[in-house]
Design brief:
This protein is α/β, with parallel strands linked by helices. It contains 10 helices and 14 strands. It has one domain (5-315): 4-Layer Sandwich (Metallo-beta-lactamase, Chain A), CATH 3.60.15. It has helices at 5-17, 27-35, 70-79, 120-126, 144-147, 168-174, 177-182, 188-198, 252-255, 269-286; strands spanning 39-44, 47-59, 87-98, 101-105, 136-139, 163-167, 206-208, 213-215, 218-222, 231-237, 240-244, 289-291, 300-305, 311-315. Strands 1-2-3-4-5-6-7 form a 7-stranded mixed β-sheet. A 7-stranded mixed β-sheet has the order 8-9-10-11-12-13-14. Helix 1 (5-17) runs parallel beside helix 8. The chain starts with a helix and ends in a 6-residue tail after the last strand.
Length: 321
């Protein structure tokens, strides 16, 4: 996998501070984390899915898209009624209740993200859950905004009885000592963060292969490019089907409309682009519900074709579980 210098620097930032704006969370932000609860429960067939919001963060527009100009990005943001002075990135994880199991798909920023993140635990508890209830955590990839919720800054493991499952190619990349030692300076924080999270539990982490059913009704789907082992998850229950897109796109309001654009965080831009087209076309053709990690809350809907190799995200007509 080819990683350029700019991507390496971006990935290093992700390891150090959940991939976005770092900084110590203020008392005001802590209060907001308690007050601004945000969770939404819906059904996919017989499975109950709860979206858990972890807040938002923002990045400068300059350099965020490798193969589009700032003016092109601003135009896309304006077209979608989004702020045009910065790129706002939401974070939403999923809780899936199926087959008698309580399963998390990713865990958010923990206490290591931007001051405007860190809402996850308050929202998780407000939705009626407790960390001790979690049976399993499925990890889409090892960027900090997806794994830092597993282990807090002080080393505390958040889910005491959960089985942690990760894709074997992702584990093999980030946990390889030779690769970590030879990594560019900008990527070393991301390697170090993966070790911070996983080394204390390495012997207990389950590694899966793509194509396997990794939880009741949930199958791991190959989606490499964003990272070497980036994984999406297909949920099937009764007549319901949903593709959990993980970071196949960043904010889909921009990237579903512009699937050839490559964000700075994609480690292999060409592979990520191929994956994006493949999964968006699958979702559009099969009319599958989708969930995106970085979509505006509650981060789910459908994908429709909108021209040659272009798509649009269609919000779901909401009906709570």
């Amino acid at each position: 996998m080819t990683i350029n210098r700019r991507a390496a620097l971006a990935l290093g930032a992700m390891g150090a501070a959940a991939g976005l704006v770092g900084g110590t969370r203020s008392a005001e932000a802590q209060a907001a984390a308690t007050a601004n609860v945000s969770a939404y429960r819906y059904k996919v067939g017989d499975a109950v899915v709860t979206a858990i919001h972890d807040g938002v963060a923002a990045r400068p527009l300059e350099g965020f898209i490798r193969n589009a100009t700032v003016d092109e990005l601003k135009a896309s943001l304006a077209e979608n009624f989004l702020p045009t002075e910065r790129f706002v990135i939401p974070f939403t994880t999923l809780v899936v209740q199926a087959g008698g199991k309580l399963v998390l798909i990713d865990t958010g920023n923990g206490d290591m993200g931007a001051p405007t993140t860190g809402l996850w635990m308050a929202n998780f508890r407000a939705a009626g859950f407790d960390p001790a209830q979690v049976d399993m955590v499925l990890v889409s990839h090892f960027h900090g905004d997806h794994i830092n919720g597993l282990r807090l800054r002080d080393g505390t493991a958040v889910f005491p009885r959960a089985e942690i499952k990760v894709a074997a190619p992702e584990w093999d990349f980030w946990m390889d000592e030779n690769r970590a030692s030879a990594a560019p300076e900008g990527m070393r924080p991301a390697f170090a963060n993966a070790r911070r999270v996983f080394n204390p539990i390495a012997k207990d982490v389950t590694r899966f292969q793509w194509g396997q059913e990794v939880a009741p009704g949930i199958t791991a789907v190959a989606a490499a490019g964003h990272t070497p082992g980036h994984t999406t998850f297909a949920i099937a229950s009764g007549a319901g089907r949903m593709m959990v897109m993980s970071d196949t796109t960043n904010n889909p309001q921009v990237f579903v409309r512009n699937p050839d654009w490559s964000a700075i965080f994609d480690m292999d831009a060409d592979a990520a682009r191929q994956t994006r087209h493949k999964l968006l076309e699958m979702a559009a053709s099969e009319k599958m519900q989708v969930a995106f990690y970085h979509a505006p809350f509650p981060a789910t809907g459908f994908v429709a074709r909108d021209g040659e190799r272009r798509y649009r995200m269609v919000p779901k007509n909401w009906q709570a579980a």
